[in-house]
Amino acid sequence: MKTSIASVCLSGPLADKLQSAANAGFGGVEIFENDLIGAPQDAKAIAQMMRDLGLECTMFQPFRDLEGMPEPQRSAAFARMERKFEIMDALGTDLVLLCSNCSPAALPDRQRMLDDLGELGELAARHGKRIGYEALAWGRHVNDHRDAWSLVRDVDHPSVGLVLDSFHSLARDIPSSSIGDIRSDKLFFVQLADAPRLSMDALSWSRHFRVLPGQGDWPVAEYVAAIQRTGYDGWFSLEIFNDQFRAGAASQLAVDGHRSLRFLEDEAVRVSGRQPVLPDRVAATSTEFIEFAASDEEAEEFAQYFRALGFTPVAKHRSKDVTRWKQGEINFVINSEPDGHAHSHEVVHGGSVCAIGLGVTDPDAAMERAKALGIQRFEQAVAPDEWDIAGVRGMGGSVLYLVDAAKSEAMWAEEFPHQQEEEGTAPLLTRIDHVAQTMQQGEFLSWLLFYHSLFDMDTTAQLEIADPMGLIYSQAVQNADRSVRFTLNGSLAHQSLSSRFIRNYFGAGVQHIALATDDIFKAAQSATEAGLPLLEIGPNYYDDIEARFGLEPKLLERLRAGNILYDRDEQGEYFQFYSRAVAKRVFFEVVQRRDYDAFGAANAAIRLSAQASHREPEWM
Ligand SMILES: O=C(O)c1ccc(O)c(O)c1
Ligand SMILES: [Mg+2]
C-alpha cells in the first residue's frame, strides 16, 4: 500500500509536519493550500524539503466551487484554477483535488457540470495536470460518490478522475459495493478516515471528529477492500480533521497514522480472503499478572491492601526483592528491587503498576506483529539464567509483557522458588476482571489504536461519565471471551478524578484493577472485617436503586451494608464495590457479573462522587 497523509492532519508548522510524516514512514504528503499559504518557505523550497525527506507531493488541495457555476463566477473559477497550476508546478505535483460544488449559486444542471468538467480537463491537459473530483457529503448537488463517478465517467477525459474519501461515503451509508462500478484508471486518489458514530450534520462531523482508521466505528477495511478489488494501486492517504489531533504532537499522530494504515491494509486483504500482510492479531488469553513497583514503605501499604482483599504472599523471586501474591487465578507481584525498570518507574510515579503480563498463545508472532506496527519492544538486561519475557512499551513508561500462556506455570515455579505462605483453599476473588487505565484525553485514541491493532480485541462505544468536577470519557477494549479487558479513561476537565490522577501520578497509568468474585456479599464482608479501606456510598443511592429496580428490602440491606453498587440490564446483573486508593494512586474494585457484559457505567458517577468527597483542595 502506498501511504500518504494530508498535511492538514498534523499540528505545527509545515516543515515539522513533513519531518514527522517522513520519520513515520509515509511515502507522500497531500499539501493543503492553507499550510502552503502560511509557510515561510515558497512552494519551490517546500518541494525541495519534500525531496530531501524522500516524500512525494501526492496532491494539492482543495479547490472549491467550479462545476455548474453561472457567470461571472464560472470564468473566475477557471482563471483561479490556472493560477493553482503554477503553484503545483513549483510543488511538483500534477494532481489537484476539486471538491464538489457547495456554493448556493451552483446550478442543478448536469449537462453544464459535464461541460465544465470537460473544459477543465482540456485546460488541465494543456498544463500537464490532472483533476481529482471528490463528492463532499454536503455538496450542493453532488454529495454521493456514485454521482461524482457518473459525471467523471461521462466526461470521459483522461485528465479528469475521481477522488474517493471514506468519510463522505461512509457518513452517508453509501454501500461500499458501489465502488465496484468505478474503473481503476479513472480513480486518481483515495483518502481515508474513520469516525465515531454521532448524530450531527456531516460538515461538523467531518471537520472536527474524524479519527484514524481503527479508532472509530466504520467498516473502513471493507471500503478499502472494495477499492483494491477494482485494481486500484495508487495512494491511500489519511485525511483526518480532528480538533484533538490539531492540539497534539505531529510526531505521535504520524506514527499512529502509519500504524493505522498498516493495520488497515492487513484487515482489508483479509476481508478479500487474500494473503495477510501481518501476523494474526494477537490472541490474549488472560491477564496473567500485574506488577507493582514500590519502595519498601509503600510495598508494606500494598501488602496491607492485598491481605485485606484475601491475597497470600506465596513466594519470593529467586534472586530479587520481588514477591508473588496470589489468589485464585490472580497474580500480583510487588517489586522493590533497588534498580531496574520497576525502580525507575517507582522513582517517577511512586508505588504503582509498572507492568502488566498478558498470557498469549504465540509470543514470537505477537512481537513480530508489534514490530510491523511500529510498537516499541521493551528491553532490559536479563541475567543469563533468568526467564526472558517478551514485552512492549505500554502506557506511561510501563511494560506490557507477553507471556507464553502454555509456559506460565513453569515460569512461576522457576522464577519464584522460595515458598512463603500457603494460599487458602477457597479464594473469594477468582480472576482479574478488568484493568482501568487513565490518560490525557489527547493520548486516548492513540492507546485505543495500540490495543485494537495489536490484539484481537474489540472496542465498545465511548461513554461520557459525569465526574462532579467534569466529564470523563471512557471506552473499553476487550477480547471475545472477555478474559482480557481494559477500560481507558480520559478527561479534559482540570479537576476531574482522571486529571487529578495524571497530575498526582506524573503521567498515564493504571488507576484501578477490578477483581472478579462469585460471591460479592461474602467478599465485601470479608474485606470489611479485614480492614480494607472501603469507598463508602451515600444513603441516597440505595433509595434510588430501590425505586429504580424494585429491589427486595433484604437485598437492598445487604448492598447497603457492603457499600455495593448494583446495575441491571436486559442481559443480567452487576455488583461492585471499591477500595480507597493506595497512596492516592491505584484503587481496587471487586465485581460480580451475572450474565452482564458491561461495566456499570450508571454507577461510575456515584463512585466518582464518593471519591471526590475525599479530594484534597488543590492548594494543599
Ligand atoms: O471540509 C472540507 O472542506 C474538505 C476539504 C477537502 C476534502 O478532501 C474534504 O474531504 C473535505
Ligand atoms: Mg477528502
Automatic annotation (TrEMBL):
Its cofactor is a divalent metal cation. PROSITE patterns: VOC (PS51819). Pathway: Aromatic compound metabolism; 3,4-dihydroxybenzoate biosynthesis. One of its GO terms (biological process) is 3,4-dihydroxybenzoate biosynthetic process. Mg(2+) binds at residues 434, 512, 589. Gene3D superfamilies: 2,3-Dihydroxybiphenyl 1,2-Dioxygenase, domain 1, Divalent-metal-dependent TIM barrel enzymes. A divalent metal cation binds at residues 134, 165, 191, 239. One of its GO terms (molecular function) is metal ion binding. Catalyzes the conversion of 3-dehydroshikimate to protocatechuate (3,4-dihydroxybenzoate), a common intermediate of quinate and shikimate degradation pathways. Belongs to the bacterial two-domain DSD family. This is 3-dehydroshikimate dehydratase. It comes from Aurantiacibacter rhizosphaerae. The lineage of its organism: Bacteria, Pseudomonadati, Pseudomonadota, Alphaproteobacteria, Sphingomonadales.
